[in-house]
Each structure stands twice: as structure tokens, then as C-alpha cells.
Design goal:
The complex is a heterotrimer of chains A (515), B (520) and C (119). With 515 residues, chain A is mainly α. Chain A has one domain. Chain A is built from 21 helices and 2 strands. Chain C has a domain of 54 residues. Helix content of chain C is 68%, strand content 0%. Chain C is built from 4 helices and no strands. The N and C termini of chain C lie far apart (61 Å). Classes of the chains: A mainly alpha (515), B mainly alpha (520), C mainly alpha (119).
Chain lengths: 515, 520, 119
């Protein structure tokens, strides 16, 4: 089964190479095939699983070979119940995005005066750069999967860095009118995060003398002084907070999401943000729990602030993609709050929330992209009455929005519920207040999503919507979206699909990090 | 005859086998001079290229032979203890030669610029009729090859010198040819000559400091041998002040060659003015040689007094990293940008050196090689972007190259990512190695500044990348020359090594590790 | 490190400085002052200084001067070697031969490339 583990990284990497080298359409198809193979490999990882060892991390399968012995670098990969759902989510979304790109290639923006970039005049230009987009998506997939699968701190950092530049290129080349500024902002923030991460990794590795995550988590911070732990956790948490993103380090996110092409936004929201929350849980909390305990209240306060501020900002948004982007800030706030409780319930909530957000926000961005492609605008003022013109699109949008606001029976509900529950269980006046505020934030989410639906789908059809073509959903769109719809429903109806997988490793982790 | 003097003469024993690489290089350089004197003009170029490459390959083979036959494990002193043949010495000699071979490929290229990158007759007044004529018609002069052989031989001598006088002689042997080579550009000759004069004057000035330092240390230890200085540092009754003044003077001379702040001011002007292949040679090989000398002096002669001088050199390392990175951000010329990045990189190597333990040596050695290959390939690419005035080095002229020349832009992007220290490139493994070594040596402050400055330094690199891909090319955009076989080979070697050492650093790190033991 | 051995040197320095100061101050005070054209020249004896250098020297002068150094160095090394030839033996002989050959290579280069031609 170790072969599968390697395959999840090697197949997309080879696919990226092939996609970039082959002619346009063939390249895109080959890339999609690679993505499909990677998806199958990642699903197959669940078969024949047995917890390896009795440590704090019990990988089902692992690969541990020396990489650079002189630098104490090891190529240590593994997958367990915490990382597997995210691995599958990543391969699934990448597959869907690649397939979507085979069907429809976004037009790269051009800086020419007098031409509305991305506007109708531009679409006439023939373009053969779709294969590069597929190649970049696959490269991003390699990086993200590497992050989820690596069990070595330095390797984790290496993969964390790999994601940065392809994502930058996706935004900067295929983005909307203000893509340059957005891409630069994205790079500035994430590079800053990377430095903090590298510094944090150095502190942990220098203090503990090993970079192996299994060993580090098993020790539970033993051997590191409290001061060191606090410093290390602060560095790591800041790095992941930029990625997640946590208020007030979130300002890159709305720009990047808004300007990125549809597939970029989907990957960005669907899985890229999870690198932050996963890292916070596995690396920051796992290796320096002492620091985590000290700083958890601060993290909780900021996460709750993110929930509230994200929701309030959403209420005033006038642009579709920007609204969805800000809703991510709120949702990730719930995930971070769950982690901040440092309890099994909180961790479980965070993991379910991660998956739910990946599915639903991925779907929302797909829909927003489809709507913008058809109506040529994302301004809420210029949309309206979608239900009458394109009922299929409107219905799906309503489904995704309602799922995202946390309606029971859909995926978004469980993460938020468990988070609030975990905060209440944590006890103490602070956490009670945070739980209440988070619940209020959840209610606000309902408000802004319903406002979105009222503005977009209901009411009389306005000009942009009346001229919307095509009104029906394309087959490729249905193929790309239906897995997300079904999975959102499945996780909503039976959260135990995810919870059963995560229960054992979360329990092991909590045992290890509790003094 | 004075009987007292006569009695003192003891003949030094010379282990010719152990110093064969140096002898081969210098001997072949003499052959090159003779070829220059006696061969007809048309034959000189092929013969010189052959002599140059054969000399370096033979030298390299001899070094490998020496390393395999246990010189690394059982180091030896020879020529009256003036030369040390030990692990670091052999590694550095090998590094100088490997990088030198690649640089020679760039120097020998004649198809990118018709007739080669060098002036035909350096003595012709720049800008005169005769100058225009020779620029149009005549091929490059070929003295550049023996000159580069002398420079490389001098560098090899420099990194294995075991006393201060030998070191000084070697310093001059490799510096003088470099001064000359800087002045030989075919285009923009005044700029090139200005660079040479600047480099020469400041270099002579720094050599004077070096000699003054030797005098001080001789006064302190009564010997110029590193071992005796190390002994004197512990047991001498003389004032330490003498030693520290001497060390400071020596350090000025060496840090000048290594381009560390505040002794860096020559670097951008010289790198910009010199012919680009020579700049490549200076950025890679000279850096290796300079740090070879620094390593040997610090680790052999002044190891025991490190607590006193390490903070001072640490401040210089921080200044070098930070100022190099900050000034790189503001550059608008690609060669100046690479020059400032070379300054900042000197700071990173210095960080590794200051670990003052075994992995400090090995990581510095490793870093020097990784950086050398990347910078060679980068300057090699700079030679390809041309307009009618020769190389188009202004950054604005590079806009939109990604569309015009995707392969070139792709390779250059990769090299820039390596400079920026992105994982899976040798830039990352190199930085990781020196920073871990420095952390192990307790130099946390240096590492913090190193990490911060490397982020800062990522921006100018990324700016070039952005420029190449995201901006529309200008109407009169420069053309990208098709590289000849030699340049292609140099570029391929540089890029492949950058990737290889990023993915599989153990290949070289293990060698560096097993070489990291100076002979006392 | 005692400074005692340096006291005479310091004394000499002071004496020298005093002497110079004394000469410079006393001469204009006690000397007769009778000026004429010759006395106002920069030098009272020797060749009359030329007004301005006539022009630039041909670069060949410098070249010749530099070439001279090649042989100059050779001689500097040859003398001490000749004096202690007995003690250096074959080793010294071979080394010196190599040295002379090396210098001759430079000489051959200069000769062939026209460094010795005046025109």
C-alpha cells in the first residue's frame, strides 16, 4: 500500500509534466486522467488500513526513507484518519477542476489598454494555455497532498512552499481585472507565513533534536521548555493563521478568491485553506501542546472575532465571489475555534468543518463562476430573478448556500454545532462567551446567505440575468458538481462517515497532548 | 659568506603528487602563453580552448585521485608546511575547477556574440575608428584562456595555503588576472575598463590591508604559519591587541574578495562592467576561493580565540545579508541585481562559517558549490538576451520574455526560485544546511536575520519572474540569441545541478561532510 | 612587553622634530634677505624646470619599464641562489632552472607579440 502513497504524489507530478509538454487539448485530457488516477489511489488508501504502532499518530500506511542524512532530512509520508479525508477531498476537487478545465478553459487576462480584461472582447482570442493551467493545478495538488501526508516537519515545510508559486501563477495569469494586485498580496502574505513557519520549524527541531512528527507528537512537547514551546507555537500558529486565514491576517483572501479563476477559487477555498487548519492541529498543537495550552484562549478569541467579523462584512458585500470569500473567513473561524478548545470534540468538529467547507464552498465557487461566466457580472445589484431564468443554477445555488449556512441535514451543520458544543464543554466564563458569540455568528451566516439568495435568485429578473446564456446546465457542469452535492448531503445526513475515521486518531492525539 | 645564514637553510620536502593539481593548472597556463606566442592567429582559439579544458579536467581528475587515495583522511603538509593537502583543501580545489570548467564554457562561446564576448585588441582606444572596426570584424583575443587558468591556479593555491605569505602570493596570483579580464569586454568598453580600474585599485588597497595584517601577526606570533599563530594565540605572552589588529586586517582583505558588507562597494560596478562570462567566473570561483581562505584562517589559526572575534564577524554577516538584500530590491539592472544577491549570499555562507564546528565547514562548502552552479547558469542566461548594443541588462527590457522565449524564461525562473530558496532547488538545501549548522553552533541571531533577509531577497527575484511572464514585451524588445553548444552545455549543467542538489543533496553533502576536517 | 627599549627611539624622534622646527624658524629670522630672479626659482641649482610637460609620453616607455621588471626579478632571485648554490644542491638548481624557464616563457610571449619593437 506504500505504493499508493507514493502514487498520490508521483502521478499528479508526472501528469503536470505531461500536461505542460503535450499539445493543448491532449495535455488537458492527460492531466485530467492523472488527476483521476490520483483520486483512485487516494481512495484506495482506505483499504487494508490498520493503525501503525501505538503512538500519538498511527498512520495506516507509511513510507520512511532517508532523504539527506547529513541534514537529518527524512522522506516520511503517512496517512491516517485525520489526514485521509482531506487527502481525498484534495484529489476529488483537483479532479473536478481538471475535468472542468477540459470542458472550459478560462481566458488568461491581458494587459492591453482599451480592452476589458476577461470581457467578451477577450474571449474571442484563441488560447492554448489551458494545459498550463491543468499542469499548475496538478502541481498544487502535489504540494497540498504532500502537506497532508508528510510526517516530517521539514518535509511538511517543503510541500507547504511548493503550493505557493503555482497558485500565484494561476491567480496572476488567469485572474480577473485586478489579478496582479491580488496575486502579489497573496504572495506577500504567504511568503511571510512561510518564514514564520520555517522559523517555528527551526525552533522545534533545534530544541527537540528531531523533525519526525510521530516522535514529536508522542513526546507531547517533553524536552522543550515552556518558553520555547510558547515561542514555537506562536510562530507556527501565526504561519498557519495566515493560511487559514485567521482575522486579522485574512485580508489577502477576499482579493485572491475574487480575482482567481473559478478553478483557482475552488482549490483555494476547498483545500488550500485546510493546509492552515491541518497544520495548526497536526504540527502546532501536536508538537508543542504546552504552548498551545497557553495561547489557546487568544486563538479562541481571534477565531470568534473572525466568525463575527466575517459574518458582518458579508452582510455588506455587493459582489458574489467576494461574499463567498468572506464567508470562508467565518467558516474557518469555526474550525479554528474548534481546534482552540484543545478537546477531542473540538478537533472532531474542526475536521468535519474542514470537509464540509471544502465541499460546500468549492461548490459555491463553481456556481459563482458559472453565473459570472453567463451574466458577465458578479454585482448583486445587477443580478436577480435567477430562479425564473435558470432554475437549475438557482436551485443548486440555494442548496449550496443553505448547506453553507449550517442547515441541519447538510454538511455545514455538524462542524458548527460541535464547535459550539466543544466550547461550552470547555467551561469557564471566557469559553461560554465565545460559544455564545460563535452561535450568534452562525445565525448571522444564515442572515447573509439568505440575503444573497433573495438578491440573486428571487425577485424579478433584471437585465443581466435576462440575457443570461445558456440557461441550462451543461453536462460537464453537472458531472463536476454532482459529486460535491452528493457528498455534502452524505456528510450532512451521516456525519459519522467522517467522524468514525477521525475518532481514533483524534483520541490518540488528545491523549498525547493532554498533560 | 655569512655562516649563520647558511646554516639555516634546510631544503623543504615537496610532495609533488599532492600539489599536482596546482602544478598542472599553472603549467598548462604557461603552455597557453606559449601557444599565444607561437601559434598563428587562426589556430589559437581551438588550441587555447583545448588546453584550458584539458588542464582543468586533468586537474580535477588528479584531485579526485588524491581524495580517493586517502589524502582527505590523512591530510598532509608539504613544501615546508606552506601548503596543506587536506579534505577542505581538496574539496575547494575541486569546486574551483568544476565551476571553472563551466565558466570556461561560457568564456569560450563564440556564436552568441559574433567573435566572442571579448575585445580583439584591448590596447586600441575605446570609441576610435580602429575600435569600431575590430568590434565588427575581429574575433576575441585568446589571452583570456591562459589568464583564467592562472586565476584558477591561484585560487587553488589560495585555498590550500597554510601560511600567510603563501596565501598572499596566491591572492595576488588569482587577483591580477581577474583585474585584467574585467577590462576585456567587447561592448561598452569604457564601462568595462572603469570596472577593471575600480577593481584593481580597491583590490590593491585591500591587499595592502592583508599584508599589514600579516606583519602584525608575525609580530605577534613570530611566524606566519597558521599552526604557530594558533599556538601563540593560547600561549603567547604578547599583547592580544596585536593579534586582533592583525586578524582584523586579514579579515578586511579576505572579506573584500568575498564581497561582504562594508567591503562590497566594488561588487555591483565590477559585476556590471566586466564581460558577463568573467562576471560568472568571479561570482562562482572567486567566492569559493575567498571563503576557502576565510574558512582556513578562522578554523585553523583563530579557532581558539573565536569567542573574541565571532561577534564582530557576526555583525558583518548580518550587515551583509540585510544590506545585500535591501539593495537588491531597488536594482533595475539584472547584472547589478545578481551582484547584490551575490553579496547577500556571501552573508549566508558567512553564517555557516561562524557555526565554528564541523558541520559549519561542510555546510559552507556545500553552499558555495550550490550557489556557484546557480549563479553560473544565471549569468549564462544573461548573455543570451541581446539587442543591437549587446546584452540587454536593464530589467525593463526583460518584460514579456516569457512569451518570446519560454524555455529561457522557464530556466531563468527556476534559477530565481533557487536563489529565493524555494524547496526542491539547491538554494533551499544550501540555506537549510548553513542555517541548521549556525543554529547548532548557537548563532540564533544570525539565523533569524538570515531567514528574514532571504524573504526580503525573494522579492527582487520574483519581480524578475513577474516581469518576464506578466508584462507585455516592448515593441523593440531584445532578441534572445540561440545559445551555442558551449553555452547550452553550461546552462544545462548549471540548471541540472541546481535541481539535483535540491532534490538529492546527499550526493554532495556526504562528500562535504567527509571532507570537513582541516589539517592543523 | 616593556617600553624601555623604545625610549631612545622616542628621544631621537623628539630631537629630530626639534631640529626641524629650530631650522625652519631660525633661518628666516637670522638669514640675510636679498632676492633676485634665480633665488625665486623653485630650485636654486640644477636644471631649469620646464614650463609644462611637452605632451604625453608614449605608452612604450611604460611597457619597457614593466618588461625590465621581468629581468629585474630574475636577477634578484639569481644572486642569493648563486651565493648559496653549494648548500642548495641539485634541488636548488632544478628549481632555479624551472624559474628561469617560466620567466623565459613570459619573455617569449613579449618578444613574439612585438613588445620589444619600438615601432
Amino acid at each position: 500500500m506504500t505504493v499508493l502513497l507514493v502514487a498520490t504524489l508521483a502521478v499528479p507530478a508526472l501528469g503536470a509534466l505531461a500536461a505542460a509538454l503535450l499539445p493543448d487539448r491532449t495535455g488537458r485530457v492527460v492531466g485530467t486522467v492523472a488527476a483521476a488516477l490520483a483520486f483512485l489511489a487516494s481512495v484506495a488508501l482506505a483499504f487494508g488500513r490498520e493503525p501503525g504502532g501505538t503512538g500519538a499518530i498511527r498512520p495506516w500506511h507509511q513510507l520512511d526513507v532517508p532523504w539527506a542524512p547529513a541534514l537529518d532530512l527524512r522522506f516520511h509520508l503517512g496517512v491516517d484518519g485525520i489526514s485521509w479525508p482531506l487527502v481525498v477531498l484534495t484529489t476529488l476537487l483537483t479532479l473536478l477542476c481538471c475535468g472542468y478545465t477540459v470542458w472550459r478553459v478560462p481566458v488568461p487576462g491581458v494587459d492591453r489598454p482599451g480592452v476589458d480584461p476577461g470581457g467578451p472582447a477577450e474571449e474571442a482570442r484563441p488560447d492554448d494555455r489551458g494545459r498550463y493551467l491543468v499542469a499548475l493545478l496538478l502541481a498544487i495538488e502535489v504540494g497540498i497532498l504532500g502537506v497532508f501526508e508528510s510526517l516530517d516537519l521539514v518535509l511538511f515545510f517543503v510541500f507547504f512552499e511548493i503550493v505557493l508559486l503555482p497558485m500565484y501563477a494561476v491567480i496572476a495569469v488567469w485572474g480577473g481585472p485586478r489579478r496582479r494586485a491580488a496575486a502579489t498580496k497573496f504572495v506577500l502574505y504567504t511568503l511571510f507565513g512561510s518564514v514564520l513557519l520555517l522559523a517555528g520549524v527551526f525552533v522545534v527541531v533545534a530544541g527537540a533534536g528531531t523533525a519526525d512528527l510521530v516522535t514529536l507528537t508522542q513526546r507531547g512537547g517533553a524536552g522543550l521548555g515552556h518558553g520555547t514551546q510558547v515561542v514555537a507555537f506562536a510562530l507556527l500558529a501565526l504561519a498557519f493563521a495566515v493560511k487559514s486565514p485567521l482575522w486579522p491576517l485574512h485580508t489577502w483572501l477576499p482579493d485572491a478568491h475574487t480575482e482567481a479563476p473559478t478553478v483557482g477559487s475552488v482549490i483555494l477555498a476547498g483545500v488550500l485553506l485546510k493546509m492552515g487548519t491541518y497544520g495548526l492541529l497536526r504540527v502546532a498543537v501536536g508538537t508543542v501542546p504546552g504552548g498551545a495550552r497557553t495561547l489557546a484562549p487568544l486563538l479562541g478569541v481571534l477565531a470568534t472575532a473572525a466568525i463575527l467579523i466575517g459574518a458582518l462584512v458579508c452582510l455588506r458585500q455587493t459582489e458574489l465571489k467576494r461574499l463567498i470569500a468572506y464567508s470562508s473567513v467565518g467558516h474557518m473561524g469555526f474550525v479554528l475555534l474548534g481546534i482552540a478548545t484543545l478537546s477531542a470534540t473540538g478537533f472532531q468538529a474542526a475536521l468535519v468543518g474542514n470537509i464540509a467547507h471544502g465541499l460546500l464552498t468549492g461548490l459555491l465557487f463553481f456556481l459563482a463562476g458559472a453565473l459570472k461566466d453567463r451574466a458577465h457580472t458578479g454585482e448583486l445589484d445587477r443580478l436577480g430573478g435567477l430562479r425564473e431564468v435558470a432554475p437549475g443554477l438557482a436551485g443548486l445555488l440555494a442548496f449550496a448556500a443553505i448547506g453553507s449556512l449550517g442547515l441541519p441535514g447538510l454538511a455545514g451543520f455538524w462542524g458548527e454545532l460541535f464547535t459550539v458544543y466543544a466550547a461550552v464543554r470547555h467551561g469557564g466564563p471566557l469559553w461560554m462567551v465565545l460559544a455564545v458569540l460563535a452561535a450568534v455568528g452562525g445565525a448571522l451566516a444564515a442572515a447573509y446567505f439568505l440575503r444573497l439568495l433573495r438578491r440573486v435568485t428571487h425577485g424579478p429578473a433584471v437585465n443581466a440575468v435576462v440575457g443570461l446564456r445558456p440557461t441550462a446546465l451543461a453536462g460537464a457542469e453537472l458531472v463536476a458538481w454532482s459529486p460535491l452535492v452528493l457528498l455534502a448531503l452524505a456528510v450532512g445526513l451521516a456525519p459519522s462517515l467522517v467522524l468514525a475515521l477521525t475518532a481514533a486518531p483524534v483520541h490518540a492525539l488528545v491523549t498525547a497532548v493532554t498533560p | 659568506m655569512n655562516p649563520v645564514l647558511a646554516a639555516d637553510i634546510t631544503l623543504p620536502h615537496i610532495n609533488y603528487g599532492a600539489i599536482a593539481p596546482i602544478l598542472i593548472l599553472l603549467g598548462m597556463a604557461c603552455v597557453g602563453v606559449l601557444a599565444e606566442a607561437f601559434l598563428p592567429r587562426t589556430l589559437r582559439y581551438p588550441v587555447q580552448v583545448l588546453v584550458s579544458l584539458v588542464a582543468q579536467v586533468a586537474g580535477l581528475a588528479t584531485i579526485i585521485g588524491l581524495a580517493l587515495s586517502n589524502y582527505a583522511k590523512k591530510p598532509t603538509l608539504t613544501a615546508g608546511d606552506a601548503l596543506a593537502v587536506d579534505g577542505p583543501g581538496l574539496f575547494l580545489q575541486g569546486a574551483v575547477l568544476v565551476l571553472g570548467i563551466v565558466a570556461t564554457l561560457l568564456i569560450a562561446e563564440r556564436s552568441v556574440e559574433r567573435g566572442g564576448a571579448f575585445v580583439a585588441q584591448a590596447a586600441v582606444t575605446a570609441g576610435s575608428e580602429a575600435d569600431a572596426e575590430q568590434a565588427r570584424r575581429q574575433p576575441s583575443q585568446t589571452e583570456i584562456f591562459p589568464l583564467s587558468l592562472f586565476a584558477l591556479g591561484g585560487m587553488m593555491l589560495f585555498v590550500s595555503a597554510n601560511d600567510l605569505l603563501t596565501m598572499f602570493v596566491a591572492l595576488e596570483v588569482f587577483s591580477l588576472p581577474l583585474y585584467l579580464m574585467c577590462a576585456l569586454a567587447r561592448r561598452r568598453r569604457l564601462l568595462s575598463q572603469e570596472a577593471a580600474v575600480k577593481y584593481f585599485l580597491l583590490g590593491a588597497f585591500s591587499s595592502a590591508f592583508f599584508v599589514y595584517g600579516i606583519a602584525m601577526l608575525y609580530g605577534f606570533a613570530g611566524s606566519v604559519k597558521f599552526h604557530d599563530i594558533a599556538v601563540a594565540a593560547i600561549s603567547s605572552g604578547k599583547s592580544d591587541l596585536l593579534m586582533f589588529i592583525g586578524l582584523a586586517m586579514l579579515a578586511i582583505g579576505l572579506l573584500f574578495k568575498a564581497a561582504a558588507v562594508p567591503f562590497h562597494v566594488w561588487t555591483p560596478d565590477v559585476y556590471q562592467g566586466a564581460p558577463t562570462p568573467v562576471t560568472a567566473l568571479m561570482a562562482s570561483c572567486t567566492k569559493v576561493a575567498a571563503f576557502g581562505g576565510i574558512l582556513r584562517i578562522f578554523y585553523v589559526a583563530f579557532l581558539d580565540s573565536r569567542w573574541d572575534w565571532r561577534p564582530v564577524i557576526g555583525v558583518i554577516a548580518v550587515l551583509t545579508m540585510v544590506i545585500g538584500a535591501i539593495l537588491a530590491v531597488t536594482q533595475t539592472d539584472i547584472k547589478r541585481l545578481l551582484a547584490y544577491s551575490s553579496i547577500a549570499n556571501a552573508g549566508y555562507v558567512l553564517t555557516g562559517v561562524l557555526a565554528m564546528q564541523k558541520d559549519g565547514i561542510s555546510s559552507s562548502l556545500f553552499y558555495l558549490v550550490t550557489y556557484g552552479f546557480t549563479v553560473l547558469a544565471a549569468f549564462g542566461l544573461v548573455t543570451l538576451v541581446r539587442d543591437q548594443d549587446g546584452e540587454a541588462t536593464h530589467l525593463s527590457r526583460w518584460a514579456g520574455l516569457g512569451r518570446k522565449a519560454p524555455v529561457l524564461a522557464g530556466v531563468f525562473t527556476f534559477l530565481m526560485l533557487s536563489f529565493a530558496g524555494i524547496p526542491l532547488t539547491s538554494g533551499f538545501t544550501g540555506k537549510f544546511a548553513v542555517f541548521s549548522a549556525a543554529l547548532g553552533g548557537g548563532q540564533t541571531t544570525l539565523v533569524i536575520f538570515g531567514v528574514l533577509s532571504s524573504v526580503l531577497l525573494a522579492f527582487p527575484y520574483l519581480r524578475v519572474v513577474v516581469l518576464m511572464y506578466l508584462q507585455e514585451p516592448a515593441a523593440d524588445a531584445p532578441t534572445v540569441a540561440v545559445p551555442g553548444a558551449l553555452t547550452s552545455a553550461a546552462l544545462a549543467i548549471g540548471a541540472i545541478v541546481t535541481l539535483l542538489l535540491g532534490v538529492w543533496p546527499s550526493v554532495l553533502l556526504d562528500v562535504a561532510n567527509s571532507a570537513a576536517q582541516f589539517v592543523g | 612587553m616593556s617600553i624601555a627599549p623604545y625610549v631612545p627611539i622616542a628621544g631621537l624622534l623628539v630631537l629630530g622634530a626639534l631640529f626641524a622646527l629650530f631650522s625652519c624658524t631660525i633661518a628666516p629670522l637670522v638669514g640675510p634677505k636679498r632676492f633676485n630672479k634665480a633665488k625665486l626659482e623653485a630650485y636654486e641649482c640644477g636644471i631649469e624646470p620646464a614650463p609644462v610637460p611637452a605632451g604625453r609620453f608614449p605608452i612604450r616607455f611604460y611597457l619597457t619599464a614593466m618588461l625590465f621588471i621581468v629581468f629585474d626579478i630574475e636577477i634578484i632571485f639569481l644572486y642569493p641562489w648563486a651565493v648559496s648554490f653549494d648548500m642548495l644542491g641539485t634541488f636548488g638548481f632544478v628549481e632555479m632552472l624551472l624559474f628561469i624557464v617560466t620567466v623565459f616563457i613570459a619573455y617569449a610571449y613579449v618578444w613574439r607579440r612585438g613588445g620589444l619593437d619600438w615601432d
